[in-house]
Specification:
With 145 residues, the chain is α/β, with parallel strands linked by helices. It has 2 helices and 8 strands; from the N terminus they run βββαβββαββ. A hairpin with a 2-residue loop joins β1 and β2. The mean pLDDT is 96.
C-alpha cells in the first residue's frame, strides 16, 4: 500500500462536472493498493496519515498533525501509483490490486481514518475524477507500507 500525502490549503474533487468533495486546510491523500496488501496494512496506513506531523508549530517546525491543526483529509483512490514504467513507455499495472479487493482496502483506510480524524472526505473509487488543489509548501510525503 502506497500513499502520496500532500499538505494543501484547499482541494476539490469532481466527477462528471459535479462537485463530490472539498476540503480546506489539511491533507490530500492519494492511495494505491498493491496485490497482497492486508487489512492490517490498511489500519496502519490510516494511523500513519492521522499522526503524520507535517504542519508547522509556533516555531516553524513541522511538529503538528492534521488533528493538531483541526484540518481535513481528502482520501483519493489512485491505482496508478503502482504503474511500472521500467520496461517501455506504457506503464504496467500488474502490481495494482484488483478493483474489488482494492476498493475493500480503500474503504478500510477510509473508515479507520474517520475514527481518528474528525473531518475526512473521499473521492469515488474507480471514477474519472477531476481534482483541483492548492498545495501548501509544497509538502509531499510518499509512504509505503
Amino acid at each position: 500500500m502506497k500513499a502520496v500525502i500532500q499538505r494543501v490549503l484547499k482541494c476539490a474533487l469532481s466527477v462528471d462536472g459535479k462537485l463530490i468533495s472539498e476540503i480546506g486546510k489539511g491533507l490530500a491523500v492519494y492511495l494505491g493498493v498493491k496485490v497482497g496488501d492486508t487489512e492490517a496494512q490498511a489500519a496502519a496506513m490510516a494511523k500513519k496519515i492521522s499522526a503524520l506531523r507535517v504542519f508547522e508549530d509556533e516555531n516553524g517546525k513541522m511538529n503538528l498533525s492534521v488533528n493538531d491543526i483541526g484540518g481535513q483529509v481528502l482520501l483519493i483512490s489512485q491505482f496508478t501509483l503502482y504503474g511500472d514504467c521500467s520496461h517501455g513507455n506504457r506503464p504496467s499495472f500488474t502490481e495494482a490490486e484488483r478493483p474489488e479487493r482494492a476498493n475493500y482496502l480503500y474503504e478500510l483506510v477510509l473508515s479507520s481514518l474517520r475514527e481518528s480524524v474528525p473531518q475526512v472526505k473521499c473521492g469515488v473509487f474507480g471514477a474519472d475524477m477531476k481534482i483541483e488543489q492548492l498545495n501548501d509548501g509544497p509538502v509531499t510525503v510518499i509512504y509505503e507500507i
